[in-house]
Amino acid sequence: MSSSASKKHAVFITCLIILWYSTNIGVLLLNKFLLSNYGFAFPIFLTMCHMSACAVLSYISIMFLKIVPIQRIKSRSQFLRIATLSMVFCGSVVGGNISLKYCRFRSIRLGIGMTKDLIFNGMSRGEPSFHLYGFIMCIGATAARAFKSVLQGVLLSNEGEKLNSMNLMLYMAPIAIVVLLPAAIVMEPNVFDFVVSLGLEHKFMWVLLLVNSTMAYGANLCNFLVTKHTSALTLQVLGNAKGAVAVVISILIFRNPVTFIGIAGYTMTVMGVAAYGESKRRYS
């Protein structure tokens, strides 16, 4: 790759990461706003709205706008991998949304970048809003997110059955909806009546829900693109850096309390991301 092409690629990746950060943090903040201010405590239904937007917008982008050509599923094994990715994705997003009900926004972002007992103990003592169930859901979502990154990396880069990001979203989202709809009916039985009554009372809620779902499509698409153009490991490291940025923004918006131990944890996360970036630069 020439120097000019390398610079263009670096600029493209940087812009892609900034867009991913912006849409992802926007979705998380709107999720927290809906859950906290409107009593929208239905994470499964909210995730289903996100997947519905992903399915509709991907279909429009491919079939009508012709942004990318349609790609067909080539084998049963490829379909099974897509279905597995859909279910893992649902688990990661639903777990993250459930954790928002119990933990402060920044607790969740810290939880995404942590491991094992040392940080569990540090977070439980250093986070004023620590909640064990919310923490467990956050950790489960983090594990599912890591597995999802590896699986989507395979689907986006396997030469024999490679899909582009938009086509992967097109096939993945409807499967996720099929999984989430019965789960919402069983686990959130009053959700549809609640959403309709809430929408009649607060008409602006529909706008927020639409913007939230559209931003979720952008965040998911950017997530796939970042995986394709970097790697699953880089995606996880960048996700930790994104978490640190999100924490700062959430503190400014929600005025959450912060402790010295919490600040130390965020600092360690940023230092780890910087060390990873430096090691990649040296050996690339």
Automatic annotation (TrEMBL):
Location relative to the cell: Membrane
The keyword RNA-binding is assigned to this record: no
InterPro entries: EmrE-like (IPR037185), Sugar_P_trans_dom (IPR004853), TPT_transporter (IPR050186)
Membrane topology qualifier: Multi-pass membrane protein
SUPFAM superfamilies: Multidrug resistance efflux transporter EmrE
Keywords: Membrane, Transmembrane, Transmembrane helix
Main subcellular location of this protein, as a coarse class: membrane
GO cellular component terms listed in the entry, alphabetical order: membrane
Domain called Sugar phosphate transporter: residue spans: 13-101, 127-276
TM segment ranges: 12-34, 40-67, 79-100, 168-186, 206-226, 233-254, 260-277
Top-rank lineage group of the source organism: Eukaryota
Pfam name, any one: TPT
Name of protein: Udp-uronic acid transporter 1
